[in-house]
Amino acid sequence: MKSVSFCFLIVLSFILAGCEDSGERQPMANIASVNAGSDLSVLEGQNFTLTAAVYPEGGSITWTQISGPFIEDFPIEDELSTEVTAPPVAVDTQLVFQARYISLDGQLVTDDIIVMVENINQAPVAIIQMDDNVVPPFATYEVVNLSGESSYDDGEIREYLWQQVDDNTPLIVIGSRNTQTLQFQAPFVSSITNFKVQLTVTDNFGLSSSNIIDVPVDSAKSAIAANAGLDQNVEEFTQVTLDGRQSVSSISDVNCRWSLLTGTAVQFNDDAASDDGLTSTNCLAKFIAPDVDAIESLVFELTVTDSANNQASDETLVVVNPRNLGILHDTGVTECYDNIAVIDCGNANFPMQDADTGRDEISDLLDKSGAGPRSFDFTKFDVNGDELPNDSLVYSCVRDNFTGFIWEVKQPSTTPRFTTLRSVDNYYTMDDSGPPLETCPSEEDCTVQEYIEFVNEQTYCGGANWRIPTYMELLNLLDYYDIDQESLLPSEFFPYTPDEAELGHKFYWVSDTSAEGGGDGFNWVIDLATGDDSVIAESQFAYVILIRTP
Fold first, then answer.
1. 87 and 230 in one domain?
2. At 50, which CATH number?
3. Which of 4, 58, 61 is closest to 34 using CA atoms?
4. What pLDDT does residue 327 have?
5. What does pLDDT average to in each consecutive run of 10 residues of the chain (550 residues)?
6. Distance (Å, rounded) from C-alpha 247 to C-alpha 155?
7. DSSP of 283-335, one letter per residue?
8. Helix/strand/coil for 356
9. Given 67, 129, 420, 422, which residue has the most CB atoms within 10 angstroms?
């Protein structure tokens, strides 16, 4: 088969030769070309040459940059050869240049060249600046601000470190020494003194450089100076420390005295507090931030005295913020336990117990509107909805001052039973199966809805919007501190509880229905004897306590 193909090609060649024009042969047209040369590899900042070879000569050529960091003066026209300086780069970077050639007869051809620019890491440059609006020298305890934000590097600065590099009195640094800016207080000095502060910056390749600035501090205008420390922003119920130990005298040590100028009164609790707790003579004074309903500013004055009876004073601000205590009373448990006994709270081996967090943790510090055990806070109402003193023995409802809800207070058992509307003994069904006059005094039926309607008709405690509580509302009312009580409702305000022998439980209805059992007709209840929840049929009996919003 190969020999047949070869013979065919020979015959075809003769045929084509015979058809060739016998006249004079015409010359072929010139085909233009351009060659930008071989790819290059250079260092940043290094000069290199772009050189193009063209055919035929005489046309026009233009160099353009296709990619990479921009280089000035491009495009370059009518230059077969041009010198270029590699730009600075943070990492090895590729540049692409294109030679564009147009021949005299209009042919356009192009060729690209790749230039790899290799990064040469340079050490960063540390620059320290002082506020232009401040004129040194600085006065005693004046705040000095230095900035290293103008420091730069061919890559990226990763670390900042500020240091004092002299043997003078240590500077009182505010905040961190590892940020772009530095804040410190000018110290007490008896004569004008230059403090040397060094900034060291380190780049992403680990190279570092440093710079030093002189910070002049003026001599103190007095033999004694008080320093009440930095302003603070704290949460209520947290311990606050006022530090006046930087106060000095050129004559002797100083004695301190702290007092509150403005804001809610606090009780100093350090070992040098006065008998009434309103002042402290400890340079390191402590107190618990007060209970606040909104952000409050406390201003404290520090007065210092030396052995020559020289005095100086200074003020500091403590901003107290309300603490997020959630919307629950927690559990009412204010003690912490190990496996066998009561222990101090905050124990690392038995952490995050009920008494370690929330309202339980600070129950002794709460500023209550009414009264109540531990974190609970109730106000008593009479049958008309008027507030009563905390020590009233006769009352009809209580308001939970934390949630704002008003709760029904049951009346004691009666003889004969089931004869008063709000007796603690009455019990009801959720559906319409509760027979009248057998478990409650109603002549209609002993259902939850019937009871709610009767109470609302009376505008009991000044309201006609009584209802049964939700699961969470009733659970929120329980006090788990003393589980030996007959009911987990705080007994100081809910003194009456049904006899468990009647129904074999102390289930109370809540408004949450349940699909347990595969269909309708089931509802949640909470056992106020144990705090456990259950699901029972709506035709079963349980007790009722009502709630309403003001």
1. no
2. 2.60.40.3010
3. 61
4. 60
5. 38 41 52 94 93 94 94 92 91 94 94 94 92 90 94 91 94 92 92 96 92 95 92 92 94 95 92 90 94 93 95 96 73 83 88 79 80 90 95 95 93 90 94 88 92 94 95 90 82 92 94 70 91 92 95
6. 44
7. SEEEEEPPP-SS-EEEEEEEEEE-TT--EEEEEEEEEEE-----SS-TTS---
8. helix
9. 422
Whether 4 is in a domain gets the answer: no
Rounded to 5 degrees, what angle do the CA atoms 278, 288, 262 make? 50
Structural contact between residues 425 and 439, judged by C-beta atoms closer than 8 angstroms: no
Partner residues linked to 60 by β-bridges: 102
What is the distance between the alpha carbons of residues 60 and 41, in angstroms, rounded to a whole number?
A: 27
Q: What DSSP designation does 29 have?
A: P
Residue 264, Cβ density class (10 Å: 0-12 exposed, 13-18 middle, ≥19 buried): middle
Measure the CA–CA gap between 152 and 70, rounded to whole angstroms. 20
* Residue where one domain finishes, among candidates 198, 217, 236: 217
Per DSSP bridges, beta strands 40-43 and 108-118 are parallel
Could you give the CA distance from residue 153 to residue 56 in angstroms, rounded to a whole number?
Answer: 48
Round to the nearest angstrom and report the end-to-end CA distance of the chain: 108
Q: Is residue 17 part of a domain?
A: no
Q: Answer for the pair 264, 292: CB distance below 8 angstroms, yes or no.
A: yes
Residues 308 and 345 placed together within one structural domain of the fold: no
Q: Which amino acid is at 179?
A: T
- Which range marks the domain in which residue 178 is found? 129-217
E-assigned strand segments in 119-231? 129-130, 143-147, 157-164, 172-174, 181-185, 193-203, 208-217, 224-225
476 within 8 A of 485, measured Cβ to Cβ: no
CA nearest 423: which of 431, 414, 432, 436?
414
Phi and psi based region of residue 309 (left: phi greater than 0; alpha: psi -120 to 50; beta: remaining): left
| Residue 389 pLDDT | 95
Give the Cα separation of 198 and 146 in Å (integer).
10
Are 430 and 538 in contact by the 8 Å Cβ rule? The answer is yes
HEC letters along 208-258: EEEEEEEEEECCCCCCEECCCCCCEEEECCCEEEEECCCCEECCCCCEEEE
Residue 323: other Cβ atoms inside 10 A: 18
Closest residue by Cα to residue 31 from 108, 99, 113, 98? 108
What CA dihedral angle connects 76, 81, 87 and 90, to 10 degrees?
A: 120
Q: Measure the CA angle with vertex 474, ends 470 and 477; round to 5°.
A: 150
Nearest-5° Cα angle at 351, 349 to 353:
135
Last residue of a domain, one of 217, 237, 257: 217
Half-sphere exposure of 86 (CA within 13 A, CB side): 25
Closest CA to 298 of 278, 324, 326: 278
Q: 34: which strand partners? A: 54
494 token code pair:
């809910």
- pTM over the 0.70 mark: no
* Local structure of residue 110 (DSSP, 8 states): E
Match 């995050």 to its residue by tokens: 352
